[in-house]
Recover the amino acids of this structure.
């Protein structure tokens, strides 16, 4: 077992195991509890890390940019996860989500496809299983992939409130622009998900706003937080990306993303379905050949 900093889906500090291929993501609920002093939390976090390294082995890499209260919640959930994991058995993903009834992909008409896919997707989400599709993959292929490949995947028989086992279609069926779209996907999740730590390293030193003016990553974070604070609940449902252009020589790319999300401004109100279009200008990092930095975000959201 080892701890490392992932540049992945949506969290600044996370746990990764050599025996597991999938990543675990956390949606941390806001709780009304007395706030501890940041210095006290930082000390507690360091003790938790030492405890985890002593009990689980390996090294733990963190970041000073991660807010102590977020890191504290995450570390405690990691410990809770491992306590359950130590006594868990192996099962299939299909059994983990309750062995739901479903139709074979060849028995579903084009008219029925949307309904059947939505039904399977909702069952997965309710049971802590997420699937991201970065490319424009036909819906019938997504349904086939879920029922014929993902359902057969062997996983740990562990469920935790607030945790999602997140899978990416392109990790099973890689495509040429996978790394490019992962960079955009990570940023979109930062924008549309409460309490996910902000990754300053994802952004270029020449970061610009929607009208082309220079800004620091901290300025972008302020804009994102202002947007998120408009809503009590902000749930990202689906994202669709298109690579409009990519210049290999200049190491630049332009990507358009359509985000479908739901919002709730006050408790008791109905959720509102909304759609946002975001454009991303990206620059390939010099030190990591497969890593893309975001140079500009063009959107009406902020």
């Amino acid at each position: 077992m080892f701890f490392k900093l992932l540049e992945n889906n949506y969290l600044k500090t996370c746990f990764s195991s050599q025996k597991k291929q999938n990543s675990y993501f956390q949606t941390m609920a806001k709780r009304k509890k007395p706030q501890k002093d940041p210095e006290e939390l930082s000390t507690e976090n360091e003790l938790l890390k030492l405890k985890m390294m002593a009990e689980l082995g390996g090294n733990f890499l963190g970041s000073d940019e991660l807010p102590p209260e977020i890191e504290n919640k995450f570390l405690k959930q990691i410990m809770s996860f491992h306590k359950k994991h130590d006594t868990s058995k192996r099962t299939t993903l299909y059994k983990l989500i309750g062995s739901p009834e479903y139709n074979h992909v060849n028995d579903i008409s084009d008219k029925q496809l949307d309904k059947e896919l939505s039904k399977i997707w909702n069952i997965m989400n309710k049971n802590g299983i997420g699937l991201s599709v970065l490319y424009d993959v036909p819906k019938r292929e997504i349904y086939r992939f879920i029922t014929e490949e993902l359902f057969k995947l062997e996983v740990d028989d562990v469920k935790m409130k607030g945790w999602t086992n997140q899978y990416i279609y392109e990790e099973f069926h890689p495509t040429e622009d996978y790394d490019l779209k992962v960079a955009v996907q990570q940023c979109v999740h930062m924008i549309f998900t409460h309490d996910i730590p902000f990754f300053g390293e994802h952004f270029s030193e020449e970061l610009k706003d929607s009208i082309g003016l220079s800004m620091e990553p901290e300025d972008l974070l302020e804009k994102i937080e202002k947007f998120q604070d408009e809503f009590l609940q902000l749930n990202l449902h689906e994202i669709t990306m298109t690579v409009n252009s990519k210049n290999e020589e200049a190491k630049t790319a332009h990507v358009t993303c359509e985000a479908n999300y739901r919002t709730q401004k006050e408790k008791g109100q109905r959720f509102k379905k909304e759609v946002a279009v975001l454009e991303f200008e990206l620059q390939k990092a010099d030190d990591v050949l497969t890593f893309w930095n975001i140079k500009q975000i063009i959107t009406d959201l902020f």
